[in-house]
Design goal:
Blueprint: E1 3-8, H1 19-28, E2 31-38, H2 41-53, E3 57-61, H3 75-84, E4 89-98, H4 104-124, E5 128-133, H5 136-143, E6 151-154, H6 160-168, E7 172-175, H7 185-193, E8 199-201, H8 224-235, H9 239-254, H10 260-264
Parallel strand pairs: 1-2, 2-3, 3-4, 4-5, 5-6, 6-7, 7-8
The chain binds zinc ion (2 copies).
Length: 269
C-alpha cells in the first residue's frame, strides 16, 4: 500500500529539526511521497532546501492568508520567478481566505493576494492548494473565474452543503486528521460525500495529529495512514482501495510524473 501525504509543513518547527527521520518514518509506514507547503517568503527558502534533500518530497509555494498582510505589492513577480525556476515546485499555495481570526479590513486585504496567486497558477499551468476557513462563499465566488485551474480545498472543515458547492466547481477536497475527531461529524459527512476521483488525504503536519496519536505526538506524514484508515471506514471501502484511489488522484492533481520515482522505490501494490 502506498499513500501520499498531499499537504504537510516539513519546514515548520517540530519537523524541520528532524526532517530525515520524519521522511524515513513516513516511508516505513507506507507513505511513499509527500508535498511540503511553503506559506510565506522566508519559508519558501526552506522549502527549496528541503526539496534538494529528499527525492520523495515535492513542494508548493504560496502566501497563506495569515501572511497576506506581510507581503509587498510586488510579491507576485518574485513568487512567479521562483516557481518557474524550480521544477519540483509542483503547485501554487497554500493561498486563499481565512476569516476566522480577522476583522473585516484584514479579510478584504486577503482577497487581492489570493487572486494574484491564482493568476500565477494560470500563467504557469500549475494546480492550486486553497486554504479556506469561514470564507467558503467568498472563496467560491472568486474561484468561479478560475474553473480552468485544478485546485484542492485543503483541510476541508466546511459543511456538506459548502462541499457540494465546491464539487460543482470541480474542486478536489483534502481530508485531514480532523476526520478522526469526535466533534467533527461534518468532516466525516464530507469524507463520505466527495466523489472518488476528487478525494485527497493529507496530514497538515505538524498540526492536527489524528487519533490515536492526538495530543500525544506532533503530527507527521507517517500519520496520514490514520487519516486514510478513517476515511476508508467512512466510505465503506477497504484501505487498499482507498490508498490506490487517493494516490491516483494525487498524481492526476500534481502531475503524473511528480511521484513516479518515489513510488517506484516503494511498494506500489
Ligand atoms: Zn491551511
Ligand atoms: Zn497547511
Amino acid at each position: 500500500m502506498t499513500l501520499i501525504d498531499t499537504h504537510c509543513h516539513l519546514t515548520y518547527a517540530g519537523l524541520l529539526e528532524q526532517q530525515a527521520a520524519v521522511v524515513q518514518r513516513a516511508k516505513a509506514a507506507g507513505v511513499g511521497a509527500m508535498v511540503t507547503i511553503g506559506t510565506h517568503p522566508p519559508d519558501h527558502a526552506l522549502v527549496l532546501q528541503t526539496l534538494a534533500s529528499f527525492d520523495c518530497v515535492a513542494g508548493a509555494l504560496g502566501v497563506h492568508p495569515h501572511h497576506a498582510g506581510e507581503v509587498s505589492d510586488d510579491f507576485a513577480a518574485a513568487l512567479e520567478l521562483q516557481m518557474a525556476a524550480a521544477p519540483r515546485v509542483v503547485a501554487v499555495g497554500e493561498c486563499g481566505l481565512d476569516y476566522h481570526f480577522y476583522p473585516p479590513a484584514e479579510c478584504a486585504q486577503q482577497r487581492p493576494v489570493f487572486v494574484r496567486q491564482l493568476e500565477i497558477a494560470r500563467r504557469l499551468n500549475k494546480p492550486v492548494i486553497l486554504h479556506v476557513r469561514d470564507a467558503h462563499a467568498d472563496a467560491c465566488a472568486i474561484m468561479r473565474d478560475f474553473t480552468d485551474l485544478k485546485f484542492v480545498v485543503h483541510c476541508f472543515t466546511g459543511t456538506p452543503d459548502e462541499c457540494a458547492r465546491w464539487l460543482e466547481l470541480g474542486a478536489y477536497v483534502g481530508i485531514t486528521g480532523v476526520v478522526t475527531y469526535k466533534n467533527a461529524p461534518d468532516v466525516r459527512a464530507v469524507a463520505r460525500l466527495v466523489l472518488p476521483d476528487r478525494l485527497l488525504v493529507e496530514t497538515d503536519a505538524p498540526y492536527l495529529s489524528p487519533q490515536p496519536v492526538r495530543k500525544i505526538k506532533i503530527n507527521e506524514p507517517a500519520f496520514v495512514t490514520h487519516v486514510a484508515q478513517r476515511v476508508a471506514a467512512e466510505r465503506g471501502v477497504d484501505e487498499l482501495e482507498l490508498a490506490r484511489q487517493t494516490t491516483r488522484n494525487a498524481a492526476a492533481f500534481f502531475g503524473e510524473n511528480v511521484f513516479a520515482a518515489a513510488l517506484a522505490n516503494s511498494d506500489m501494490s
